Amino acid sequence: MVYTTALLCLAGLKVHEGQKVVEEYLLLAPGIRLGLLADGLSLPVALIMNLLCAALAFFSIHYVEHRIEIIYGKVSEKRWRSYYSRYFYLYLLFPVGFAGTALASNMIFMYFFLELLTINLYFLMAYFGYIERLKVALMCLMWGLFSAVFFLAASLLIYSQIHSFEISQLSSLAGNPWTYWIAILFIIGFLAKLAIVPLHVWMPWVHAEHPTCIAGLLAVYANIAAYIIVRLLILPLGADFQVFGTPLMVLAVITMIYGALLTMAQHDIKRIAACSTISQIAYSILGLGALTNASVQGGMFFFLSHIMGKTIFFSTAGIVVYVTGIRDIREMGGLARKMPVTAFLWILGAMMLSGFPPFSSFTAEWIMFAGIFERGLTHPFTLVIAILGVLAILLTVSYTFSAVKTVFFGPLKPHLASDKIKDPPLTMSIPLLLVAAVSILLGLVPSLVMDFLNLILKI
Prior knowledge:
The chain has one domain. The radius of gyration is 21 Å and the shape is globular. It has a two-stranded antiparallel ribbon with strand order 1-2. A hairpin with a 2-residue loop joins strand 1 (21-29) and strand 2 (32-38). The chain is built from 19 helices and two strands. It is mainly α and 459 residues long.
């Protein structure tokens, strides 16, 4: 994972110079060519996702040992090694699926990698999940297939019109009367993947009951639909997509507020992190719906910032459960004395999700809302939505920092005074600190991302 991250950095140097890195393979059938494309949009997305996969691979080393013991008890060494290696075999399908989805130059190729991610999630949750893991794994699979059906239907409808699955050919659909219905099919599938209200019902279960070592990756799995919307709809069909802008913004702000209120009602530490994802994902959709240069670029920048913040926030929740065996925050308190590094990580995650400087989420929100308010100058209703979106940030600050107070500060609960309650091995905390450092770097030097997005995102 470290090696492939380095390779993507090298590809990034070429893309930054204005080149497109293209790999083309077999022609499977007319219009179906296996190809990969790294450009100003796909490269930063693939790179950040791969970086998170690398960080959580290290995080998983000790966490998976713990999950095997909790689920399967004392087993023979041979069987233990079987479960342990099974996890990492499956884990490697995440970077494959993410990179393939981001870099695919063909819709069938993209569909294949999205389905690979869904099937992989099913098996990882079934083997290593938490409460009712088989039921929740099946729920994840069914909702993934629901999204896939709409994606495939839209792709086939496109093929019927232009006789190609190549993403580069989508611009030829501009003005086609079928484009409206193609966009609706894509949007329904993507809204389910993004857990936008009312297609959000799977997220609190699936995102709370998976093994926490892949929590950040499930956030990527849900968020990546924002990238696909830009790649398949906004870039090639921006004029036709305009009609969907305001409805998407309305759904986004409803989801932001509803998701935040739902999070504030939770007492389960993993459900707090899971429900917050519903609210946070919607910020990117708000930016995409405004359909200005700044809002779309900021929305994509926020997508990358959110998955970094969510990786730290949710992984820290997993550390608390890993160490204490408790999920109800009402049974916690004073843990900062026993777990100072974990408390620091939670605060970092809370700041990243809340958009505090110097983290990249602050810069991304600033750029995104500048674009949204720009649209509001000519669309008064958009201005109202933008103001509600800004106010929703206060709800994020409320639920992230109130959880900090409840879990880590105040008097130490007697049942948490054990010497076993302490910060986890460094292989779990150092990768998360490195992710936070990357977020700070991108917040202080946003051109590291924005220069790439400016190469291609010109609405």
